[in-house]
Amino acid sequence: MEKRLMLAIVLSFVVVLGANLLTKKNIQVKPKTELVEKRAESAPAATPEDTSATSVATTPTGTEAPVVNVPTAPAVNAQGLPAEEQLKEVSVKTALFTATFSNLGARLKSFKLNEFKVTQAPDSELIDLISVNELTQLPLDVAFVNSAKETVLTGNELYSFTGGDIDVTSSPTANKLVFNTTTASGLRVQKTFTFSNDRYNIDLDVQINNISGNTLVGNVSLNWREHFVLDKKDRASRLETFAFSGEEVERDGYDDLDEKAKSMNVGIKWHGMLNKFFLTAVVPEETAENSFYAGSLGEGIYLTRSTIGNVSINSGENKTLKYHVYVGPKKSDNLKKYNVGLQGAISFGFFNIIAIPLMEALKFFYRFTNNYGFAIIIITVIIKMLFYPLTQKSYKAMKDMQKISPLINELKEKYKDDKERLNKEVLELYKRHRVNPVGGCFPILLQMPVFFALYQVLLNSVELRHAPFILWITDLSSKDPYYVTPVIMGVTMLIQQKMSPSASDANQKKIMMIMPVVFTFMFLNFPAGLVVYWLVNNILSIAQQAYVAKKQ
């Protein structure tokens, strides 16, 4: 009975770790952080939703955007865009990133992180968190749809700006980029971007001046788009949208959005998109009338939209809407600076309540070791010490079960034709020898949430990305390039199996001996940080088993 329960636990662990390979949910998409390597030379053809106002216009709260006619700007080319000589770019450099903007819609065209490269090669390009390259799909465009469902601001207008590129690192006070445009519908729009040297942050002020002669009432939307392609090599990566209205963070994967768009009513405090290591988030200052929409535009393009409804501007008046936009690594310390709970966007799954403290502990020990590999080892040792009493009881119970195994076999032979009597006699045997048949498995079962939580932390933490350990392990977030640690880990599992009390059933013995092989193949492509944890845990377990065996 105990061996069957143990086998069930081990197999369930295999299922959980291997779920990324078996379920539709985890046929993952390639994150935008790696698109630099394989981005197509030309963007995919824009979908009808994205070339019309559907991609920029909004509707009353909770409904999907209507198809409306967008006025065509003068002097356009064959693609319906302004002539190339009218298109301009301007860049802003800070200590943390370099952002490039297009004057078409005053959109963000590139956002390169100064501290993160695509690969570890010395000549590698910096990661660019803007994953679309079609001008009309670039993020941070602003649209205005009036109460008559007319698009009075499309997001595709040409904006003007004064001056050239900005370098905040050399002149911290020169940290603003201002775009202006006037629409045919009678709007003067000013988009002011403010930057900081110490934050992955863009403050965006959208000032709308109504010179139409009529009162304007409608919805103003801020749009973000990302392009994702399937990546079967990195199944741990996953695109998700998130939105928070003060109660629970709502999350939807790319596959969910392929099937059905997501809408949330007023009161959205923040929202955005994230993948394995990086995150974009929009935090509007005006949240009362703010709603959220997320959906797929086809061709791998995904859209999130922040809509502030019931915006009313009298003729001759101004209306200013303020946003904070975060574009950067998934680090809770960075997100806490907003003081709106934005760090809640980071989730490690079902055991998040355990994973978050483990992540904080990992960062704590890194401050002393300056090496996340050694920090992982320290965490593993501490966890092993905390669960030492439980594992001691587990080993003792397994040993006790081994001692009475011959007696159980005798009962099975004696009462092989009377199952009811057999069960009764086996229970009596357990009582006489004071053996708990599940005593060896229950302590292990209690530890599994911690194991799964740490697994998620080591698999999805940006802190481990390109973080070196020792010798040939130069990136704890990617697999061991020579498969040395997974093989050694498999050997330690085999040693554990040999040291553990063996099952009396021959078939169970064979199945249990296959487990090290299964785990070894599973861990071959797992992040090196996760393999280091499991390897150290196995070594400590072997030492503990040897100690228990010596005492008995």
Estimate the mean pLDDT confidence: 80
Give a count of the beta strands, DSSP E runs of length 2 or more.
21
β-strand amount: 15-25%
Q: Give the overall shape, derived from the CA principal axes.
A: elongated
- Category from helices, strands and their pairing: alpha+beta
Name the strands of the widest sheet in spatial order: 9-10-11-21-18-17-14-15
Largest β sheet strand count, sense and barrel closure? 8 strands, antiparallel
What is the helix content?
Answer: 25-40%
Which keywords apply here?
552 residues; alpha+beta; 2 domains; 6-stranded antiparallel β-sheet; disordered N terminus
Q: What's the short story on this structure?
A:
The chain is an alpha+beta fold and 552 residues long. It has 14 helices and 21 strands. The chain has an 8-stranded antiparallel beta sheet with strand order 9-10-11-21-18-17-14-15.
